[in-house]
Amino acid sequence: MSNTSSFKLVLLGESAVGKSSLVLQFVKQQFDEYRESTIGAAFLTQTVKVEDGSNVKFEIWDTAGQERYKSLAPMYYRGAQCAVVVYDITNYGSLEKAKSWITELQRQADPDIIIAVCGNKSDLAERRAVTSDQVQKMFEGEEGLLFVETSAKSGDGVQALFTVLAEKLHNSPPRQTRTGGASRAGARNAGVDLSKSTSSSGQGPDACNC
């Protein structure tokens, strides 16, 4: 019987960047054009099989992006081993918001948390307002960030994103959390562009305003 390890993952980002649609595509391979905004947070689980045959179970907290819910965010990212910070490639302001979330995570979350920066809605490339170069420049000098573009609508990049995160979590040694407990979040590595390293695992971008 395969071993299964569980990890807490939190999604953060401005409202309407497509966080809920990413999770729906990952968990159910579905897309809902008219999905309503999340209130507070939603909880889902999904299991990924990694290369050695073990299972990684994601316990996913999909947080609301509206400003009135921002004060609740620490309750959801506290103790998380992994965070996916989502922005909309058609909205430069959502990238700036993502930057502020990453700064908050680096200051307040577990020190070894694995962070992925996810540019969603790649299916709307003709309306692109954020380029890969702009993202790299904004996070220049930051360590431990993974970069990927996805489409929750078509599925491009979605499975690849969560598979890479599962492998990193599974292969990371236990680390100490801020409270002294053991955490399996990994040490931070140099930023990696997942669109270059995992293009073969297509599941992806999000055209939804969820």
TrEMBL record:
Biased composition (Low complexity): 175-191
Domain of life: Eukaryota
Recorded GO MF terms: GTP binding; GTPase activity
Pfam family, one: Ras
Source organism of the structure: Schizopora paradoxa
InterPro entries in UniProt: P-loop_NTPase, Small_GTP-bd, Small_GTPase
Start and end residues of each stretch annotated as Disordered: 169-210
Keywords recorded for this protein, A-Z: Nucleotide-binding
Protein name: Ras-domain-containing protein
